[in-house]
Amino acid sequence: MSVPVMWLCAAALLLAAEVLTPGGVIMIFFAFGALAMAGIARCVPGLAVAWQLLLFSGLSVASLATLRPVLMRRLGARRTAYSVFDLKGKTAVVVARIVPPESGRVELDGSEWKAVANQPLDPGTVVTVVGHENVTLTVQSKE
After folding, report:
1. pLDDT tens for residues 40-72?
2. What's the pTM?
3. Do 123 and 97 touch, CB atoms closer than 8 A?
4. Alpha-carbon dihedral angle through residues 54, 57, 60, 64, given to the nearest 10 degrees
């Protein structure tokens, strides 16, 4: 298999990873880097592997830094607070039963979080975030 074809295969795998993984829009920019490397490897057939990897890394990071903000604006993506420090007082919905002292899961702004409570909570229960320990939310029922 020729080097340009290997870079094209890498680009295809990275695109598949983008489609199969939720959120983010990150892997596509590494696919762009791999596509660019396929072209470079075709034009410069004897390029050392170390230089190929260095160029791939640089091209991928450059495309991520320059194109991602533009793409996210075009897609109308909204920023969601993912820091636990910003979540206190927010409303969430239990998606996996919480039975103290075991944790469950809640959905908040389209993201799932590990959560604990001081009472059993069934899926569908609307809760309020009252605190956190690391990235585990502490919630209580709104009822």
Report:
1. 999 999 999 999 999 999 999 999 889 888 877
2. 0.53
3. yes
4. -130
For residue 127, the one-letter residue type is: V
Beta bridge partners of 98: 121
Distance between CA 88 and CA 84 in Å, rounded?
Answer: 7
**Residue 85 burial class via C-beta count within 10 angstroms: exposed 0-12, middle 13-18, buried 19 and up:** exposed
Place of tokens 């409570």: 117
Structure tokens at 79: 């920023």
Return the structure tokens found at 41: 């490897």
CA trace torsion 88, 75, 31, 60 (10° rounding): -70
**Would you call the peptide bond into 101 cis, given omega within 30 degrees of 0 as the criterion?**
yes
Amino acid identity, position 13: L
What's the distance, CA 107 to chain centroid? 16
The upper half-sphere exposure of residue 88, i.e. CA atoms within 13 Å in the direction of its Cβ, equals 5
Helix/strand/coil for 2: coil
Rg of the Cα trace of the chain? 22
